[in-house]
Each structure stands twice: as structure tokens, then as C-alpha cells.
């Protein structure tokens, strides 16, 4: 279950809108549904590589939008410039039983003394600028579900290149994750330390990413979308005893089809 959620979270949800874009890069209004298959190599102990299907679901309205695990409201939309109120699921939680007890033991952790990590719900705001030079997005999110209580700030640049029927979208991004956020998902908790688990607190971290997404129409209403993403984990996170030794990133690939209503 954890792997399926990770794959859904890693799929670039902004690409759901762009996969249905018209020639002027404006997204078509209405619903899109479909199915995709994704592969991801989880850095957490014992999870390894998984290949799983997941649904594609997106909606683009004049003000309201929904893309996979996130959505929001356009507070201002001039076409080239947007200010959005955002809400997004954070699917970084996991059950300790899904991790490898022997691998955790090799890292000095007793699985019986560890707690599960909950998924979270983030809210925040985003700003985006678009032009012939590409698209820049900035966003700030904070956990309101009392899972981690952490914050995240992100920036991403995407260049949109059309080649015949294909739309190619290479991107580069960076996320700053607060210490509350990283300590919850990559560190050990106070309650666990009280049971004798070694304390590990990675602190705030910067996570760069590279990605490319490709999309093309398959007839009048069907679309293909696929892509790959690599998130580079800094040493503070890769040194976590919850992660496999030698893990240095979170790679994922996906591909699927969607139907626009």
C-alpha cells in the first residue's frame, strides 16, 4: 500500500493539466480520467522497487482545479500569471510492518519499538508565471493534519517544447523541508527514543529534483502522458536509519492514458 501511494505522490500532478493543453498551452476545461502504471525505487528499508497501476483524475475549471493528490482555487488568473490557494495530500506516511525488520535491526533500530508515520494534509499558496521561456512555480505548504506539523517551500522551472504532436516538459526543482517535517518522516520520534530507540534528527533539508514529462493526443479526447522524476536526497536524509544504506535518491517513472470529457 505504501508503495502505491509513493508512486502516486511522485507522479507530477501539474502535468495532468498540461497533458490536455491546447496549442496555446492553456488547459482544456473539464474532467480527465485514466489509468497509468508507475515504477519507483523506495529508499526506505525493505521496500525496494515496485511496479503498480494508479488512477489519473484531474479537473480544470475557471477557478477550481484538482490534479491527482492536490487541488485548489485560482485567486488570480491572467493566463500568464496565477496566484492559487492550495490543498494537497502528503503521502509520505508508512506502516512500520511494511519495512524490513532485519534491515532496521542492521541499522540499529528495533521495529517493535517504532511507530507508524501518518499521511498528512497540507494547505498553502502558490504563484506561477508562464511565457515562451517556460513556467516558474513557487509554493509554500504547511501541514494542518497534525501529522508532522512541518512546512515546505518549493520552486520549479518547466520548459514546454512542442515537437509535432508531442509536448515535452523537462523540469528542475528544489524543495526546502522544515526540521519538523524531516524529523517526522526520516528521523526517530521522542516516544520511540523513550523506548530506547537511538535518537536521529536530520533537521531541515533541501531536496533538488529533475524530471521530464511527455504528452501527446491519441485522437480527439484521449491523451498519452508519461515521464520520469529523480529526487536527490541530501546526506542528512540518506543517513537516516529508516533508509537503506546507500540510498541517495527517489527515482520514479510512469506512463498512462487519460480521457477528457
UniProtKB/TrEMBL annotation:
This is MipA/OmpV family protein. Keywords: Cell outer membrane, Membrane, Signal. One of its GO terms (biological process) is peptidoglycan biosynthetic process. InterPro entries: MipA. Its main location: membrane. Residues 1-17 form the signal peptide. Belongs to the MipA/OmpV family. GO terms for cellular component: cell outer membrane. It holds the Pfam family MipA. The keyword Phosphoprotein does not apply. It is found in: Cell outer membrane.
